[in-house]
Each structure stands twice: as C-alpha cells, then as structure tokens.
Design brief:
Blueprint lengths: L2 E5 L4 H12 L5 E6 L8 E4 L5 H11 L3 E4 L13 H21 L3 E7 L21 H16 L4 E5 L2 E2 L6 H10 L7 E2 L3 E2 L2 E2 H13 L5 E5 L5 E2 H11 L9 E2 L1 H4 L12 H6 L7 H5 L2
Parallel strand pairs: 1-2, 1-4, 2-3, 4-5, 5-6, 6-11, 7-10, 8-13
Antiparallel strand pairs: 9-12
Helix pairs in contact: 1-6, 2-3, 3-4, 5-7
EC number: 1.1.1.133
Family: Belongs to the dTDP-4-dehydrorhamnose reductase family.
InterPro entries: dTDP_dehydrorham_reduct, NAD(P)-bd_dom_sf, RmlD-like-bd
Length: 286
C-alpha cells in the first residue's frame, strides 16, 4: 500500500498539497500531520515535530512510502519563532525525516526557501551556495544541509513568496490590512522576489514526490520579478480592490536588515518538471 505523509498540513502550502494529493489516485492513503489545527484534507495525524521521539514513533506507525515536508517555523509566527523552535523544527525534524527516509528507502521532498540567501544583483541558480543573513534563513539553510547529507536522494525544493485565493494568502491579507489602516508598516519597493502561485508549488511538490529519479535542489518560484509593493498591488487588483493609498517604503529607510534583491532562476527546474510555474500575470489573467 502506498502512503503519503504531508507535514505541516494546516499551513498555507501544506493545505493545498494535502488537497491535491487527496484528489489523485497515486497514494492509497494520504496522512496530514499537524500540531494543533486539524487539516482540511487527508487523514489527520497529530504530532509535535519538535519532539523527536514523537516524530519517530509516528513514522514507524504509519510507514509512509513518500513524505512531503512542508512544515516550518517561520517569521509569520512572531514571538514563537525562537532560536530553539527554529532548530527543533527546521533543522532537527528535517534531519529525523531524512534519516528515516534514507534508512527505509522512502521518497522525501523537503521544502526550503529563498531566505537561504541575503540578496545580490545576479540571479541565484540551484548550484549557488546558501548565504543567509538572518536566523530563519540560517535555519532553512541548515535544514537543507542535513537533508542533503542524510538522504542524498531527497528533493529539496526552494520556494519564494506564496500567493493564492480560497483562502487568501498572508501577503494579500497583509496588504489589505495596511491599505485599510488596520496594520502599521509599509511594503518595500526595494525588496525583490519571484512570487509563485501556491497551487503551482503544491502540484510541483506532488510531481517531485512521484519522481525519485529527480533529486537535489529545485527552484519552485515564479518567473516574474516583483517588489513586495508591486506584489501587494497585483494581489489587491486580482481581488478587485483598488490599491490607491497602499503604503510604500524602502528597507534602507526602515533600518531593518533584510534580504534585498533575491531573484531566483527557475529555468533548470522548469525544464525537468511538467508542472508549469506561472508568472503572476499569467495566474491573475485566468
């Protein structure tokens, strides 16, 4: 019997992966791991990934034949993003999954982030070495390193800013809150990323989970470069909302140390996948 385990299935990406996996006939069972909130698709398995013994027991219990590891501690968690939590989930849990997957010859797809870099003028390719500038990025870079070392046959998928509808993504809800004056702050005009549609990423992860011949680093990002401010404008327009008055600013003026121009090249990855990673213009014109 084929069994897929999805970690972080109550997260924004994990929800979509679980939904699409449930629609396929690839796996006989789809297990959706969460810590607190129940998932919207798949058979719920509760587990605290920060508890290594608990995670190992779960793996032995359900014996997955494939794992898509979307769970992570992120800046969106606010004060809960402690150094201890970053290490326990983003690094140690990833190591536990990779070690178990390698020992049992199970396919592992590990989700990482463009936060592994600090920004530069040239685009980043799959062969560029991570160079993070903040704790979250450092934890994701460490997670990549342990997965690659413990399970060389794993696929490591880096993503960028995710967006989508039903439910609205965090980037849209943040822009909307700023526009309405419900949240303080600005969207940066000098912080560039390659946003990607959450459904494209979910489908690409499911495709990678089916193709064990594809291993190493993959860039699941969009082909279009946008500032956070431009992304906010585009997402509001997609939802029929006038973005006039959306607050803009620069990272320089903010005094914050953040990655600036993080442009990620996805052409090598795209040449290996049938799932198309679309531009935001293509998605919003649907």
């Amino acid at each position: 019997m084929s069994r897929l385990l999805i970690t972080g299935a109550s997260g924004y990406l994990g929800q979509r992966v679980a939904y699409f996996a449930q629609q396929t006939t690839i796996w006989d069972k789809v297990y959706s791991q969460t810590w607190r909130n129940p998932p919207t698709a798949g058979e719920h398995v509760a587990c605290d990934l920060a508890d290594q013994a608990q995670l190992e027991a779960l793996l032995e219990q359900i014996q997955p034949t494939a794992i898509i590891h979307t769970a992570a501690v992120t800046p969106a968690m606010g004060p809960a993003m402690t150094d201890q939590a970053l290490w326990a989930v983003n690094v140690q849990a990833s190591a536990t999954l990779a070690r178990w997957a390698a020992q049992h010859q199970v396919r592992l797809v590990h989700v990482s982030s463009d936060a592994v870099w600090g920004g530069r003028e040239a685009a980043y390719t799959e062969s560029d070495v991570p160079a993070p500038i903040h704790p979250y990025g450092a934890s994701k870079a460490a997670g990549e390193a342990v997965v690659a070392a413990l399970d060389p046959q794993a696929a490591i998928a880096r993503t960028s800013l995710l967006y989508g509808q039903n439910p609205l993504d965090p980037n849209t809800t943040m822009a909307l809150a700023m526009l309405r004056g419900e949240r303080h702050g600005v969207l940066f005009t000098d912080e560039l990323r390659c946003p990607v549609f959450v459904e494209d990423v979910a489908q690409a992860l499911i495709e990678l989970a089916q193709k064990p011949s594809l291993y190493g680093i993959f860039h699941l990002v969009g082909p279009q470069i946008l500032s956070r401010f431009e992304l906010g404008q585009a997402l509001l327009a997609w939802n029929g909302i006038d973005s006039t008055g959306l607050p803009a600013g620069t990272t320089t003026a903010s005094g914050l140390r953040r990655p600036s121009r993080v442009v990620v090249d996805n052409r090598t990855t795209q040449s290996q996948l049938s799932t198309i990673l679309r531009s935001i213009d293509d998605v919003t014109r649907r």
